[in-house]
# Entry
Amino acid sequence: MRLPRKEGLNIIPLVDIMLVLLAIVLSTASFIAQGQIKVNLPESESAVLNKENKKIQIGIDNANNFLYEGKIIDIEKLKSKIMLIDNKTQIELVSDSEARFSSFIEILDILKKKNHENFTIQARIKN
# Structure
């Protein structure tokens, strides 16, 4: 006599999907915990390390998003924030090496209109 085969739900594909989703959530959580967007800086032989205390970082990531203190911001909000910055405060400009140069020029134009000349351009030191 043969025993009836148990029909049921195959949960192995469900477990596989859940593991993939867990990996995505964990990688996203570590990105959010850092609170920074990675910017691949261009290299320069004459780059120096600046240890100025009071500075504000403005930049562009590889998707041409404008960044203010590491957070994505649109260009109009960036203009208004730059206009509120004191001219004595140092601004650190960073741009991903894959970003459009025209986006970088937009930031420089805003600084020029404000007559803010206290800024540095950050680069990696060539090995």
Summary: The first strand starts at residue 43 and ends at 44.
